[in-house]
Amino acid sequence: MKEDINEKVRANPKYQQLVKTRTAYGWFMTICMLIVYYGYIALIAFNKEFLSQKLGEGVTTIGIPIGVGVIVFTIVITGIYVRRANNEFDAVTAEIIKEVKQ
Amino acid sequence: MTRLKQVFAALALFGLAGAACAAGADLGQAEKQATNWTAIIMFALFVAGTLYITKWAAAKTKSAADFYTAGGGITGFQNGLAIAGDYMSAASFLGISAAVMASGYDGLIFAIGFLVGWPVITFLMAERLRNLGKFTFADVAGYRFRQAPIRAFAATGTLVVVAFYLIAQMVGAGQLIKLLFGLEYWMAVVIVGGLMMVYVLFGGMTATTWVQIIKAILLLCGASFMAFMVLLNYGFSPEAMFADAVRIKSEVAAAAGKSPEDAAKVGQAIMGPGSFIKDPISAISFGMALMFGTAGLPHILMRFFTVPDAKEARKSVFWATTWIGYFYILTFIIGFGAITFVLTNPTFLDAKGVLLGGGNMAAIHLANAVGGNVFLGFISAVAFATILAVVAGLTLSGASAVSHDLYATVFKQGKADSASELRVSRITTLCLGVIAVVLGIAFEKQNIAFMVSLAFAIAASANFPVLFLSVLWKDCTTRGAVIGGFIGLITAVALTVLSKSVWVDVLHNEAAIFPYASPALFSMTAGFFGIWLFSITDRSAQAAQERAAFPAQQIRSETGLGAAAASSH
Fold it and tell me: Does residue B114 contact residue B456 with C-beta atoms inside 8 Å?
């Protein structure tokens, strides 16, 4: 019975498509995050002066909005993924489950 | 003994003591802090509240599933707060604000490192963890593998990480309490150990989660209030706050004998990256430990099994990321507030101009400066409650590794009934509690700064690669996972011992053999390589079976078909 359902899921093109799309999307988002974070770290490691530049007349440096930006980016990118996964991907998953249980 | 009596007196009196006790803490007088009654009373209130919750939770904790996962009845939002609570430890609150006060911008770099692991967990792990897992991360890692070896590995990985994290928290609790409450070190350790055992023993995951949620809310409110008061003082202009901080840092440098030009440079230095990141290798390695270590911390992973389904699991990481990110922005403001409010106020400094009680007191003194003695008591109590809640989560995950992975799966080969599994986890909780207290006292005078980063490094090099490859790589086998996992673990420990934080700071050798700040770049690579090598060279029949089981595992991890339901079954 269980084997049966597994075979049906595997044979379902929607399942193949879901795994492909979601895996690719997950990796794409992961790579975005890695680029942003390690880009920031590389900037600190190789070009500290860039981040220490003053923005204007005052003391605030360009590093402050960039640093806070990394934090905000982290939250936003997580939100974007969760939104798509909880709507689009979960809807497809529900369809697949419904189809194989018929 | 008299101090113990004082605590009981405080517990008995806290209903009416109120204002009278506000006079208790008089900072700035002696090196050793006076007994801080406001803080003790606030903490007693917290304890009373959480014990009441524990009583309620105990009535609901009947099966092993209730004990490990609160019956799976936690919502994504609640779980997000609890995860954030686990993550916002006293070390990150006091440590990061202190780092910001000392060196400004570097503190922000440090905080960001702790945050960036969360999206990666969301994108690659969260729903798969929830769909495959039941009680511990070994359920996920060992889904299609031979149970005994993979469970033995997972339990080792869990217990080693928990042990280092726990010792660091216990020692932190003891040190903190001397400063905050003016009580003895050993008393703090015993109070933390005792209360933690009560929460976990009787209330299991339900109590542990709610203690964590309450504490997270209190901490977020307290930190928000402090940041608000600091910004209010500068008319909500960050530039004004930064300018004032730069001016004060310059004045301090000038007073120490620097020329006006050099002093101005020292002042402006807090607005950009300083010496925190020395070489690129250390920077990347340290970033990897933080980023991937988060995805391998057993007490965090365990929380994914407390929600009903993958949807809620994703929501919980989103909320956790949001709260943790918000919290780190607050600590950044609090650190700058500490520069402007605390560094200029002689009340908080000793004769030499050094912060009373050490650098980690930055946020605590700021609480006093912006909110008076009652708020100081509140923040002190929250800081202590934070340690309590974190050690409860750690102990619970250690106890589940022993009872669910070792006892029920390895020794009883999956035939243990829920009642005896529950009994074993309670006995383990007691043992872990006693061990934590003993180690906490034994390590009082030791330099334990390396312990939390070691815990992260091991989690990143042993637990994470095994979990990651077993879920996502078809050809991963038991042999590869177990051998590779242990290679990662041993490399992380060995390189940490050879690095400055242990070889020089603890063992007092001349120079470090391993030159970088974190072993993760090397130990994680070793772990992944080991798993890969010992998996692809595995030609046994068992390995063929395990590879053949991958599609079925993938279907469950992707769709949740057949996933462990929320409640006990």
Answer: no
Q: Tell whether the model's pLDDT for residue B121 goes beyond 50.
A: yes
Amino acid, single-letter form, for residue B488: G
Could you state, in order of their start, the residue ranges of all structural domains in chain A? 2-101
d(CA A89, CA A83): 9
Q: How far is CA B269 from CA B118, B242, B433, in A?
A: 30, 11, 44
* Cβ contact, residue pair B123, A27, below 8 Å: yes
From the list A19, A59, A74, the residue facing B321 with the nearest CB is: A74
- With H, G, I as helix, E, B as strand and everything else as coil, classify residue B484: helix
DSSP state letters, B230-246: HHHHTTT-HHHHHHHHH
pLDDT, chain B, mean: 86
pLDDT tens-digit series, residues B289-304: 988 998 899 999 999 9
pTM of the full predicted structure? 0.89
Compute the residue count for chain B: 569
**How confident is the model over B260-288, as a mean pLDDT?**
86
Q: What is the pLDDT of residue B33?
A: 61
B275–A contact, CB cutoff 8 A:
no
Residue A63: list chain B partners with CB under 8 A.
Answer: 105, 271-273
Contact list, A87 vs chain B (CB under 8 Å): none
Q: What percent of chain B has pLDDT over 70?
A: 92
Query: How close A69 comes to chain B (CA, Å)?
Result: 10
Interface of A with B in 28-57 (CB under 8 A): 29-30, 33-34, 37-38, 40-42, 44-46, 48-49, 51-52, 54
Give the amino acid at B364: I
What pLDDT is stored for residue B564 in this prediction? Answer: 65
Q: Is A76 on the interface with B (CB under 8 A)?
A: no
Residue A9's pLDDT is 87
Query: Which of the two residues, A1 and B116, has the higher pLDDT score?
Result: B116
User: Do the Cβ atoms of B480 and B531 come closer than 8 Å?
Assistant: yes
Taking the C-alpha atoms of residue A48 and residue B52, their distance in angstroms, rounded to an integer, is 52
Tell me how close the Cα of A102 comes to any Cα of chain B, in angstroms.
14
User: Which of B1-5, B232-236, B438-442, B505-509 is least confident?
Assistant: B1-5
Closest CA to B244 of B211, B270, B212: B270
